[in-house]
Amino acid sequence: MSWWDTDDADDEPELDESSIRVRPNRKGNRPRTKTRPEHNDAETARVLAVDRGRYTVLLDEGTTAERRITASRASELRKQAVVNGDRVRVVGDLSGDEGSLARIVGIVERTTLLRRSADDTDEVERVIVANADQMLVVVAAADPEPRERLVDRYLIAALDAGIRPILCITKTDLADPADFLSNFAGLDLQVFTSATDRMPLTEITAALVGHDTVFVGHSGVGKSTLVNALVPSAQRATGHVNAVTGRGRHTSSSTVSYRAEGEGGTGWVIDTPGVRSFGLGHIDPANILRAFSDLAEVAENCPRGCTHLPDAPDCAIVEAVETGELGPTGPARLDSLQRLLATFMKPTQY
Ligand SMILES: Nc1nc2c(ncn2[C@@H]2O[C@H](COP(=O)(O)OP(=O)(O)OP(=O)(O)O)[C@@H](O)[C@H]2O)c(=O)[nH]1
Ligand SMILES: [Zn+2]
């Protein structure tokens, strides 16, 4: 359990992914495909949903032969987790006919892997979603109150995984998000604002087209409402609040992929109920700096082991901001970087 997340602990067992545990991969995010030669005839499919050992996968995506089939996982994959967004190699009955069952024999090399550890010091991590290239962080302007450190943690997890973060502030009919948003002014972050009767669906859909976007957010922020508006067929359950505790409850407990249709094409929405906490045990702070390419360049002149935090001696970034070398947005950029680094390095202070 995470140190800051005690009130959410009761929801943890509902996570479909909770049974999936993999060892940290020292070589980075890219496990290799392990398709055996005898599976030359295997076809590649996209994993849309995972439910107790049964995988819904999409074959021949985007063609007239496109179909959803059910598959199990071959024992040769051993403990390797197959997660939503994975591209897998499937063999066997690929007809998709009623009662048919195909077999997953390999996982195609992943481009990104969104992981979390159970808490900040835990070496064991959970794989959440594979191959997402964007993360839409959904946060409410009020009810529940937005917490910038929570958003920081989402951003860190995204940047570490090489996933582009996007922010959507919901419930702007209840509060003005300007103050909250000022925390992120120095980030190169696309921001949408949404209210019940003013949801920017065309704009968000345009950002989704051509991408695999994982949606994350704390319970009750209106994420399901947003997913349903973007993908009417999704029918995510909404608005369930536990009468006893008064807290939001997860009504749908597993990660599911939906196709959003826009003018210029389609995009995948990967909705993740329950992914509200990212323990950051596996994060490499160098990846956070790398996401600020302008600052990363300057940091090459930092002393070895520089933390780039306000108390770091002779930090080249701090100096460059002071001399104005990084331009008018320099201070905000540095502030954002330092916030993320501090959230990562000194989590117990928040
Ligand atoms: N005022 C206001 N309420 C909203 C807005 N969007 C959603 N809500 C309400 O907020 C509540 C929670 O919305 P959900 O979509 O269920 O939230 P969620 O983030 O999916 O929460 P879980 O299903 O618990 O994960 C519901 O009662 C919605 O009607 C909004 O823009 N403004
Ligand atoms: Zn530095």
UniProtKB/TrEMBL annotation:
Comp. bias regions, Acidic residues: 1-17
Sequence positions that bind Zn(2+): C302, C306, H308, C315
Subcellular localization: Cytoplasm
Ranges of residues in domain EngC GTPase: 130-276
Example GO BP: ribosomal small subunit biogenesis
Residues bound to GTP: T170, K171, T172, D173, G217, H218, S219, G220, V221, G222, K223, S224, T225
E.C. number(s) listed in UniProt: 3.6.1.-
Cofactor entry: Zn(2+)
Gene Ontology molecular function: GTP binding; GTPase activity; metal ion binding; rRNA binding
Domain CP-type G: 121-278
Spans annotated as Disordered: 1-43
One Pfam entry name: RsgA_GTPase
Superkingdom as given in the UniProt entry: Bacteria
Bound cofactor: record note: Binds 1 zinc ion per subunit.
Compositionally skewed regions (Basic residues) per UniProt: 23-34
Keyword terms, alphabetized: Cytoplasm, GTP-binding, Hydrolase, Metal-binding, Nucleotide-binding, Ribosome biogenesis, RNA-binding, rRNA-binding, Zinc
Summary of subunit composition and partner proteins: Monomer. Associates with 30S ribosomal subunit, binds 16S rRNA.
Recorded family membership: Belongs to the TRAFAC class YlqF/YawG GTPase family. RsgA subfamily.
Protein name: Small ribosomal subunit biogenesis GTPase RsgA
Organism whose genome encodes this protein: Mycetocola miduiensis
High-level lineage: Bacteria, Bacillati, Actinomycetota, Actinomycetes, Micrococcales
